[in-house]
Each structure stands twice: as C-alpha cells, then as structure tokens.
Design brief:
With about 350 residues, this protein is α+β, with helices and mostly antiparallel strands. It has 12 helices and 13 strands. About 40% of the residues are buried.
Length: about 350
Amino acid sequence: MPTIFTLNSRSNVMLEVIRDHFRITAPRMYQEIQRLHKNLLEILESKNIKYENLRAALAPVMDRREAAFIFDSTAFDSDLYGREAFMYVLPLLEPKATQSILVGDMIGEDQHLIVEIIRESMVLSRSFTFKHSTLLYCVYINNLSDTAIHRLHQGLANCPAYLGHIPTTFGSRAKTYVSLCVCSFILKNGKTLIVAHEDDRDNSENINITLYPLEEFGYRVASLQGRYFSIFLGFKIERPSHKGFQVDTELALNSISDEITLFYDFDVLLDEKKYGYLINEKLGKLKKAGLDSADREYISSLIQSQLSANYIYNLSYLEEYDVMKFNIMLEVPHPTGHPTRMTAALEYIPAKKILRIITLH
C-alpha cells in the first residue's frame, strides 16, 4: 500500500462519525480509508500533482522550522483581515517550497494564561497593548528554513498589523495552544496552491472559493473536495495525544491494520542486531542526542515515555513482509539548549503488544 503521510481525525470528525454511527468494524474501516486514499491519489494525479512531493508539508521534518506569525486584526482597514494578512505573507514565501499554511483567531477563555504564553514565547516586531486574544490572527507555516523565517519576520515588519512570530519548532505550551486555534487552509507545492472546495463540487474543477486573490501572486490554484483535503492534506501541529483526541491515533492505526489497540503501554523492543546497526550507522545522530553511550533498555524506555507525546505519521503496510509501521517524532532533552529531534520508525505488532524499533534518524 502507498504510504499515508498523515491522516487527520483530530480536527475532522468524518471518519469517526461514519465508524461510530454505522458501527463499522475495523477491517471494513481499513478498506474505506484505503479507498479514500486511493481516490485522493487519482484526484491529485489528474491535476498533475504528485502526492509523494507533498510529504514535507504534511509530516514533521527534523531539520526545518515552524512558526506562527501574529497579526492585530484591528490594525487593518478592512474587516477581511485574513485576506489582508495574506497580501503581505504570500510574496515573502520561498517560490519552490512545499508547505502547509494554517490560519485562525487566537481564541481561549483564560486570557491571563494567553498573555503569559505570548510574553514567554513571542519574538516581537513591535510593542503592543494586549486587549483580547480573539483580536489576534495567526498564520502558521511549516517546513521553513532559518533564512525563510528571517525574511518573513523582516518583510512583515512593513505590515502595520504584524506584531511578531512565535517559534514553534519544538514542543511548548505555546505550540500546543496555537495548535488548538488554527486549521489547515492552503497546501503550497511550489507555485501551486492546493485548497479545498465544496464536497458537492466535482473534483475535476479547480476553483478558488476563498476571498483571497491567490492567482495575483503568480500561483496556480488546484482544488478538491474538502473531505479529501481535510483528512489527507491537513497538517497536524505536533502536540500530546490527550484523552478525547485519541480517536485520531485509533484511525491512523486503522489505516494500516484491522486490529486496533492503542500502543501507549506497549513494550518497545530494540533487538541486539538493530542496536548494533544504530551504533555503527547512526552514531552521529545518537551522539547529537546524547545517546551514543546509551544501552538498548534506555533507548527503548526513552521512546516508550514519549509515545503519547505526539501523533503518528508516515503510515504504511509492507505487504511483502507483513509489516505495519509508522513514524513518531521524539524530542530528546539537551542540558544546554533546545532538545534534539529524532524520528523513530516503529513496527506495530498489536497481537504481542510490541512496538519494534526499525530505525532512528
């Protein structure tokens, strides 16, 4: 089966509702998810878009950055503040980059907490008086280089509504908060912008149903039905898998298996042969994370401790070997700075309640 880079049942409830309302079994649900993904690949191919080229926009990338760019919605002359913000953002993006762009108002009841988060995390472009979080508008962009963040931060200083940005590459309460405020809007693949259109509109059409003049900036707009966009092309910002959101993990597992068991209490297995491979072939990465002298048990326990700290992605079933596997992003604490990010590829073995480490990189 083709790899599913991400499956979003965190902000899209369609799969969950269908499964629960019709009491669909896991084997049948597996078939339905695979059918929908096959349809997606065909739709994208008809629009000259290769799904494999979208990976960097859909899944975490270790050596790239993410950031939330914050605007004061009241500083724009127009009530269409999202549109006005995009007029400044789009010209500053790297033309060849593949990225997800998420947007939303900074909602929340605990305004004191939100002020604390902003104070501790925001890189200011200009000082401002906080009135209420819902007056702040966020444009979230992933797969950024350091240069791209600098260019955006400096270029957006010309926008009177731009207040600054929140670095969100690493886990933080700011990143978790932002993840609850924004939703996927555009997937940028070079000079093509992929957007959602109505579910009753044919997928053969390409239409910009947003109020944003995307084509004026030299982009080609490709669109498809919102159900496909939201489930398979919606980027999920990394955050812990809290109760109430675990259905997202269940359905991600259901995309590769018809036996669904949440793996948070599974044993994580690193066999001797694989450990030797990591020491011989991945020593540089292990050393960067401070794991070059760690034994098998420590590495396994480290991964086990972070199983609920993030979502799973790169979901695939290798039929030739009967292997179901996925990736999860780890953050290994560093005593003198930011944590080291590592990707763990894990084999899912529900019958034995085991996750077997395939590789770390």
